[in-house]
Amino acid sequence: MQKISPKYLMILIKNIESAIWTEYKTYKDVKYYIDKWHTLEQQDWNNYWENFPIVIKESKDIDLITTLHGIDDETLLKIAIDLGIETPDFIPSIPIFRNEIKSSYTTASQTFEDAFKQIEEHPDIAIGLVNSALESIIKEILKDERIKISLKGSETLYFLVSEVLKFFQLFPNSDIPREIRTIGSSLLSVCKSIEAIRSDKTKFHGKTGEDYIVNDPIYAYFVVNSVTTIGLFLKKYFEKKFPPPIIKVKEKIDELPF
Predict the structure, then answer these.
(1) Which end of the chain is more exposed for a tag (fewer CB within 10 A), N or C?
(2) What does the pLDDT look like over 144-193, one tens digit per residue?
(3) Are residues 144 and 62 in the same domain?
(4) What does the alpha-carbon distance between residue 177 and residue 174 come to, in Å, rounded to a whole number?
(5) Is 212 left (phi over 0), alpha (psi -120 to 50) or beta?
(6) Which range marks the domain in which residue 168 is found?
(7) Radius of gyration of the chain (CA)
(8) Is residue 54 one of the residues assigned to a domain?
């Protein structure tokens, strides 16, 4: 992920430490909380891997501040988000997005992970892949039997976003406030631009040596964060308006012995 500045990390860690002690009053509960984020894999009897070390003081209590300083940037952001700490100096949508789609949108998740690995070395490939990841998410939403929109599989991102916004009645519905319609129109324009970059400024479609190809990672980060923001909104809106149907299970009544 993007490297967070050391200055911002120092502030973030201090805020996390304060929030943890506010939420959990004892060393025991603080240790339990940190344990939830800790992963330990035993390779063999004298070899193991852990995502970060938990530092224990001589008193046998957790050394929280030292432990936090040993945690990677992405996990720190997740902890901050979990504790409700605002992160205005960093866009936290990427770690949230990755967690949100991991289980329910597996194809999109795999595509996004591939995109994320390409941002620094191949920003144009990253842009093309996140475009595909967003397409996958919207296709999954539109496949819901309560929506009943038939897809051929070759639809563009622009078409998919148009359909989902129409169904959500966010655009171009004339019954909603003009400002909301403007936001819906802008969201559609953003997706159209992402699709245009993929088609015209990446190697996903045939290019000649004179064609411009996106080669600056900052543009890829910009597009990736845009996709995560849009994807998170559409996913959350869909889940709120169309929660999974409740399946009632009939209780088995044991036969009476008389």
Answers:
(1) C
(2) 888 878 888 889 999 999 999 998 888 887 788 989 889 999 999 999 99
(3) no
(4) 8
(5) beta
(6) 93-241
(7) 23
(8) yes
